[in-house]
Amino acid sequence: MESEDGMALDWHVARALLEWQLEMGVDEALAEAPVDRFAVEAAAREAAAQREAAPARAAVPVRQAAVDPVAEAEALARAAVDLPALRAAMEGFDHCQLKRGARRLVFADGVATARVMVVGEAPGRDEDIEGRPFVGRAGQLLDRMLAAVQLSRAESVYITNVLPWRPPQNRDPRPEEIAMMLPFLRRHIALVDPALLVIVGNISCQALLGRRGITRLRGQWTEAEGRPALPMLHPAYLLRQPLAKRESWADLLSLKARLRDLPAPG
What we know:
Oligomer: single chain
Largest sheet: 6 strands, mixed
Distance between the termini: 115 Å
Structural class: alpha/beta
Strand order of the largest sheet: 1-3-2-4-6-5
């Protein structure tokens, strides 16, 4: 046995030390090297004092700000300086769930400098496939109605919808879907700057006039987005209710008269 300084201990001295340790209650070895418990305790006290002296910093949970789709749509629409930029902004807008189930975005059709802008509701199956508004049976009827008063999408009418994506199973758009796409529609109207609007169907009236009940609203000139607006029955409704075509003919004549009274474009 050696002492702490490396010197060999006499057998009798070593025995005396062991006996002394036994008398002190030390009867088991827990480690190969001795541990200074006084030094360990002093180090623990010093560490505790340092922790108490350090400023307390509570963990602050990181919260992600909720995205407001309407506010984002308003910012994107406001930044669009022309129709191609508006279309790109709408194509990049990912908050409307309708986009995930639609084949393509249905933006517009017709002449962008036209005095008449027709605002429909939402694309159907044919529109979703072709990417243009009013190309199915209802669209063909709309073309015949416009032609009856010497108007056409090829020369004198611009057509768009409240929603650019087809709702599944052609269901009615939900209020939150209309709300998030309305800033784009308003910007669309401002960029085209038509002399008047033709608001086709209940959903369009809800979006632009804040009212429903197209059978009561139709034929009554009002104002939307700062310009004259004429609510009309949707051509799809006329396909189901042919007798209502008489009322739509009266509305078309009213539209023709209003256009005649407008000053000629400069």
